[in-house]
Amino acid sequence: MKKVIIILSIILIAIVLGHNIINNEILEKKEDEMIIIEDEEEKTISPISGIHSSIDKVDRRPVAIMFDNHPNARWQAGLSQAEIVYEFFVEHPYTRYMGIYLVNDPEEIGPIRSSRPYFVTTLLQYDPIYVRAGGSDEAKEYIKELNISDIDAITNSQNTFFRNDKVGKKSPHNLYTSMESIRRTQLEKGYNAKAIYDGFKFYEEDTKMKGQDAVQVNIKYNEENSTSYIYNEKDKVYERYKDGEAHIDEYYNIPIVAKNIIIQEVDTKSIDDEGRLEIDLIGSGKGLYISNGKTKEISWTKESKHEKTIYYDENLKEIKLNPGVTWIQITNKKSDITIK
């Protein structure tokens, strides 16, 4: 009888141990599966650049920042970290930049400069936090009228901005900030944490399109102001030059580069004695898309101030961009553009 009990006990222990081993294997498999799923969920694509980043960064609100581009303000800090940068005419002979940020958090950003109405019309499609230092009367009225989530250095200078004495620039060309300060101020002001907007379309992988060669791109805004790009075939990006000088990020000490270049032709006219401009961004027009050493003609439409500017190919389909940084050059019919 004792032998029977011992044998039954051994069988029972074996069954229990086997059951636990199977359960542990199933649990390990489930844990592995959960880890894989979690990894997949951790990364997603930025709707602004097509770059992979963490969900928490992609899911937050974009930031639009005004950059000074006066010769005495160069070079800019943190501009290399923007996912989209616009270059617009301002008062003759200068241009100004607006950088759109989502996944990157530059430690130093600047110099910050003032707003114009056409920058406001452009940023509306991203529903961003807007960072600036004042603006024209029309721009300030526009910002107030549209209830834009605004961080203005004129009223937030002590909390968000600082005069950078280390860069050898004089006021007003030395006003700086950081993404940490911007995000903190966003929270303090109670601005929405997320935005509602439509991003761009991107290729899943780097793609070389059909088109004319575009190894060198030159945009002559006027006799005193030009922008150039030279294609770096090894890295498959365009290195940027401003007025004949290599464009460098002042803080990170790296070249400013673009994966995509969009040239958008618009109508402009002077509206006052100071040379301020009216730039017509609502409607349609012509342009060029440049990437990976090639260029092709495109068209653009913007149906209203809140709608996204859509860029179309020759078949009237919205173009896809290669993942990476995009520079959008706003030009007019007088701009001298050469592509080789």
Automatic annotation (TrEMBL):
Pfam families: DUF3048, DUF3048_C. It comes from the Bacteria. Residues 53-191, 217-328 form the DUF3048 domain. InterPro entries: DUF3048_C, DUF3048_N, YerB-like_sf. SUPFAM superfamilies: YerB-like. This is DUF3048 domain-containing protein.
